Amino acid sequence: MKMKKGLKNVSFVILLFNMCICLGQDVAIQKRIIIDVGHGGKDSGAVAKNGLQEKDIVLEVAKEILRINSKLNQPNLIFLTRYKDSLISLSDRSRLAKSLNADLFLSLHCNHAENSNARGVEVYVGKNLTKNTRETIWLAYQLQDQFKKHKGFDSRGVKFANFQVLRDMNAFCPALLLELGFLSNKMEAEIFSNHKNLEVIAKKLLQIITTIL
Fold first, then answer.
1. At CB < 8 A and 24+ separation, what contacts does 5-10 make?
2. What DSSP line would sit under 32-77, residue for residue?
3. Helix 133-149 crosses helix 195-212 at what angle (to 10 degrees)?
4. Are the C-beta atoms of residues 182 and 117 closer than 8 Å to each other?
5. What is the structure's pLDDT at 153?
6. Is the pLDDT of residue 100 over 50?
7. Which residues partner with 37 through β-bridges?
């Protein structure tokens, strides 16, 4: 049952992409950005003491990115790996991005640590070396640098990891995983509890993506 929901969600995004082509958007010029909305469904991801769940935060941020992008005079081609609270397998996420011929794959998450004082943004790059590694690392540093400059965003730097979505996508296009902050940190959990703050995060993230691509 869960798999059927996941496949339906993937089919919907592909249909949306085809609609863009039919409407005459010049996909040869515009960059295709895939926002991978972490977790979903029975997989809540990290959970704050106040009950706030990672899966809900990243979905709200991703939807805000779409909303803000739609108001631009020349909107970017942005697609999500899920548009609702559904569980999409890691392999389906990368399969979707490849089917849409992604120029950038950005996976959104929130962090959690035993140390409640841990805070800040982390940007992850895949450990496997590919033709896209140099560009991916450059994009990662640009992303963390821009967040660092933005008031309220501490940066914990660029890190390397063997996350499956990065491993699967790194050879296809630049792929990054962004940890927006720590739900285990009381202050950052409070920030994520306010929708206006999520709007600010989404707007800033869209600005950064548009600038660095």
1. 5/41, 5/86, 5/87, 6/86, 6/87, 6/88, 6/89, 6/92, 7/92, 9/82, 9/83, 9/84, 9/86, 9/88, 10/88, 10/92, 10/95, 10/96
2. EEEEEE--BTTB--SB-TT--BHHHHHHHHHHHHHHHHHTSSS--E
3. 140
4. no
5. 74
6. yes
7. 108
CA distance 71 to 31: 17
Tokens 């600010």 correspond to 200
The H helix count followed by the E strand count for the chain is 7, 6
Alpha-carbon span 136 to 138, nearest angstrom: 5
Mean pLDDT of the chain: 88
CB-side neighbour CA atoms (13 Å) of 78: 27
Q: Which residues contact 167 (CB under 8 A, 6 or more apart)?
A: 126, 127, 128
Find out whether 147 and 155 touch, Cβ atoms under 8 Å: yes
CB-based contacts of 157: which residues, under 8 Å, 6+ apart? 122, 123, 144
Sheet holding 155-161, edge to edge: 77-80, 32-37, 104-111, 175-182, 121-126, 155-161
**Residue 60: other Cβ atoms inside 10 A:** 17
| Distance from C-alpha of 143 to C-alpha of 170, rounded to nearest angstrom | 17
Distance CA 165, CA 205 (A): 20
Residue among 102, 112, 110 nearest 174 (CA): 102
Reported pTM? 0.88
Q: Answer yes or no: is pLDDT of 209 > 60.
A: yes
